[in-house]
């Protein structure tokens, strides 16, 4: 008997490499677990502020551990991640607000493109060490994701508007209501309840919550 489709919300920010891992794994498992995966771009800076937390790169010893951890994760999850040479500039100075607004504008106008545009933004900053703050960068990410020129222009025009800011805020506030303190923040809807899971390293636990099986980071390599 087919099981009912369960909803899984993924709250993420493209400044977070751990979110990239979780995103790829959930996209891969979507057909196997028969989940309704809802991508929810939020603003990690707002979550950090509300929860009184700090990104790992802002904690002296975690910042030392981070490059090795990210390299290992990329190999394990088979995601082409690589530390940006200018990490401090990327995280401390440039941030992700504009990228998340661009992504939100895409999500509002062309939700079927959210997945590809998210991936291209991650690829820029966390694979190629490229900018994700300038209009030209968003244009290139949009092109790489297969958006038309008019779709890109529309997202660029809308990313600074109030409805886009409100939507990003509302995703961020929803995660904060669920006591988010970082990213990725995953919300599984099971039997009328919301179960939250933090991190890309909790997939066996998420599988258990969903009543599904975990076959490792690349389920197509399994006997599914
Ligand atoms: N153990 C988690 C760590 C995820 C993580 O460190 N995420 C960062 C953003 S890139 C964060 O929000 N950290 C907050 C915290 O660790 O308290 C994983 O492997 O995914």
TrEMBL record:
Keyword Ribosomal protein applies: no
Family: Belongs to the GST superfamily. Kappa family.
A cellular component annotation (GO) from this entry: peroxisome
GO molecular-function term, one example from the UniProt record: glutathione transferase activity
Residues in DSBA-like thioredoxin domain copies: 7-210
Keywords on record: Transferase
Catalytic residue list: 16 (nucleophile)
Name of the protein described by the UniProt record: Glutathione S-transferase kappa
Annotated transmembrane regions: none
Any one biological process term the GO annotation gives: glutathione metabolic process
Record keyword Acyltransferase present: no
Coiled coil, from the record: none
Source superkingdom: Eukaryota
Species the sequence originates in: Patella caerulea (Rayed Mediterranean limpet)
Reaction catalysis annotation: RX + glutathione = an S-substituted glutathione + a halide anion + H(+)
Pfam families in UniProt: DSBA
EC number per UniProt: 2.5.1.18
């Amino acid at each position: 008997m087919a099981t009912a489709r369960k909803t899984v919300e993924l709250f993420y920010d493209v400044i977070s490499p751990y979110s990239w891992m979780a995103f790829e794994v959930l996209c891969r498992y979507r057909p196997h677990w028969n989940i309704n995966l809802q991508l929810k771009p939020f603003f990690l800076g707002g979550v950090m502020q509300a929860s009184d937390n700090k990104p790992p790169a802002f904690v002296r010893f975690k910042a030392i551990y981070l490059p090795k951890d990210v390299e290992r994760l990329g190999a394990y999850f088979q995601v082409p991640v690589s530390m940006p040479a200018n990490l401090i500039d990327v995280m401390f100075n440039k941030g992700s607000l504009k990228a998340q607004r661009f992504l939100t504008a895409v999500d509002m106008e062309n939700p079927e493109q959210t997945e590809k545009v998210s991936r291209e933004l991650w690829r820029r900053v966390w694979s190629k060490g490229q900018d994700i703050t300038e209009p030209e960068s968003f244009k290139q990410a949009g092109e790489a994701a297969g958006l038309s020129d008019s779709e890109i222009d529309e997202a660029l025009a809308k990313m600074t508007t109030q409805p886009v800011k409100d939507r990003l805020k509302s995703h961020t506030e929803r995660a904060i209501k669920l006591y988010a303190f970082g990213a990725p923040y995953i919300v599984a809807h099971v039997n009328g309840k919301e179960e939250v899971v933090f991190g890309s390293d909790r997939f066996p636990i998420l599988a258990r919550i969903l009543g599904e099986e975990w076959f490792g980071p690349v389920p197509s390599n399994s006997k599914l």
